[in-house]
Amino acid sequence: MLYRFSRSVSERRSFVPSSILLQSLSFSSFISAPAMGESGGAGSDASTAKGKTKVAAAAKSKSVKDEAYLQAVIQKRIGLFESIQSAQLAKRQSIGGDPIKVTLPDGTVKEGKKWISSPMDIAKEISSGLAASVLIAQVNGILWDMSRPLEEDCTLKLFKFDSNEGRDTFWHSSAHILGQSLEMEYGCKLCIGPCTTRGEGFYYDAFYSDLTLNEEHFEQIQSQAAKAASEKQPFERIEVSRDQALEMFSDNKFKVEIINDFTNKKRKRERGLQS
């Protein structure tokens, strides 16, 4: 079955750990319910049908995940990620180092190094408090990961959770934690995500085969999310080609479809610009 797990939130004015934000997860099924009259009957027949439904639901909720498959897939994905990351880091170090000027909103100019300095480096230079609370940067008008190296002279803005840019980034990162939690707990296939809805929160679509989720699963998901948050796993960025992305997610037909759809649309846009 395909489910969307989502987190609805009210506006917050301070930085809140992802593990706390995941405490009130809710989900809605994308599978249509049977039409009225398709199952069950009157009197004792209806009671029997309901009883069978509960037993079936309980059985499905205890579906066993394929640990060997899950670990093999994750290790392959991590291996590919680290290999690509290492190659990209080596390339940046070979071409980086030239001085660049980073202009802040108040006109202050900071010195940096091309392909080496990141927005986080600049934030740390300003103050440790800023570095601890900033979530996303804007470089020459483009949203920029805090650890992503700066490529040239630029203007730089930094955003905390009290901004739309900061909240969107926080929800995006939280959706990554949610996706990891769902995958590790149930061995599901992640679909569309990570996704955010401004002012509401985040969600991740996932396919669970014959597993039926219910309210009892929330504690398990919360436990996985808290574990991921406590490990302080870094959010790291790489750029991949279509072939690299397809190799990384070759075991997930939903991600393969999304990757192919994205690249096909990109090619159409590029052809449109050239014509």
From TrEMBL:
A molecular function (GO) term: ATP binding
Biological process annotations from GO: threonyl-tRNA aminoacylation
GO (cellular component) term, any one: chloroplast
Tree of life domain: Eukaryota
UniProt keyword annotations, A-Z: Aminoacyl-tRNA synthetase, ATP-binding, Ligase, Nucleotide-binding, Protein biosynthesis
Catalytic activity from the UniProt record: tRNA(Thr) + L-threonine + ATP = L-threonyl-tRNA(Thr) + AMP + diphosphate + H(+)
PROSITE patterns linked: TGS
Keyword Zinc tagged: no
InterPro entries found in the cross-reference section: Beta-grasp_dom_sf (IPR012675), TGS (IPR004095), TGS-like (IPR012676), Thr/Ala-tRNA-synth_IIc_edit (IPR018163)
EC number(s) recorded for this UniProt protein: 6.1.1.3
TGS domain location: 98-160
Cited Pfam families: TGS
Gene3D superfamilies cross-referenced by the UniProt entry: 3.10.20.30, Threonyl-trna Synthetase, Chain A, domain 2
Family: Belongs to the class-II aminoacyl-tRNA synthetase family.
PANTHER family in the cross-refs: THREONINE--TRNA LIGASE, THREONINE-TRNA LIGASE
Protein name: threonine--tRNA ligase
Gene: LOC120267640
